[in-house]
Amino acid sequence: MKAIKNLIKALREDKDFARKFLLGLTGAIFGIILTYIYYPKIPYRIGLIDTPSVYKKIVVYELKSPNNLQIKRDKLYVFRLPIQTRYYSKGTLFVKYAKCLPGDILEVKGFKYYCNGKLIAIARKTDSKGVPVKHFEYNGTIHKGKYFMYAPHPRSFDSRYWGFVDKKDFVGEVKWSLVEW
Predict the structure, then answer these.
(1) 40 vs 82, 83, 174, CA distance in Å?
(2) What are the beta bridge partners of residue 46?
(3) DSSP 3-state of 6
(4) Angle between helix 2-13 and helix 15-38 axes, rounded to 10 deg
(5) Backbone dihedral region for residue 130 (phi beyond 0: left; psi -120 to 50: alpha; all else: beta)
(6) DSSP codes, 15-73
(7) Taking all residues of the chain, what is their mean pLDDT, rounded to a whole number?
(8) Cα(174)–Cα(96) distance, rounded to whole angstroms?
(9) E strand or H helix at 12, and its extent?
(10) 7-11, 25-29, 46-50 — which one is most confidently predicted on average?
């Protein structure tokens, strides 16, 4: 009950927050309606992102089988998390950028990640609660069908912590983002 009262207070006092909240809520309702009415008929889905990792809140993505998906560097994709973690279940849908592709050389030096010699990411030693986290270690050419997925937010949970995503785990390609953080 207190959370609802705080939300109502924030909506009344902060017009920018209220606008973003209502836009997000409208998008969510629209997405739910489209999903349940037209789900089998249209190849597009609306995704609601609950973290700021890619700086987008709502995305529209096109469902594609992995065999029909041409994965390109720095494009956003939807995929299933390849492993079970303490934060998310295996198979949870994620939205991240394809950052290092098959044939590229990925090097990990300490906590720094380089793709073809260019610094692309830095891993953190702890999660947001101060708990130590393991980071992915790899040095070499990325094999066919493997992708290093990344998001620019410093606390993004991505390939830095769980490794490559197999092409078979991709669900679709993001076509539009409706609301940004």
Answers:
(1) 25, 28, 19
(2) 60
(3) helix
(4) 120
(5) left
(6) HHHHHHHHHHHHHHHHHHHHHHHHTTT-SEEEEE--SSTTSEEEEEEEE--GGG----T
(7) 89
(8) 9
(9) helix 2-13
(10) 46-50
pLDDT digits (tens, 9 = 90+) for 96-147: 999 999 999 999 999 999 999 999 999 999 998 999 999 999 999 999 999 9
Lowest mean pLDDT among 19-23, 66-70, 127-131: 19-23
Token readout for 93 is 């849908």
Please tell me the predicted confidence (pLDDT) of residue 7.
66
By CB atoms closer than 10 A (0-12, 13-18, 19+), residue 101 is middle
Single out the residue of 34, 33, 87, 25 nearest to residue 58, CA to CA. Answer: 25
Architecture of domain 43-180: Ribbon (2.10)
Alpha carbon 19 to its chain centroid, in Å, reads 24
Give the position of tokens 């539009």. 176
Structure tokens at 175: 């076509």
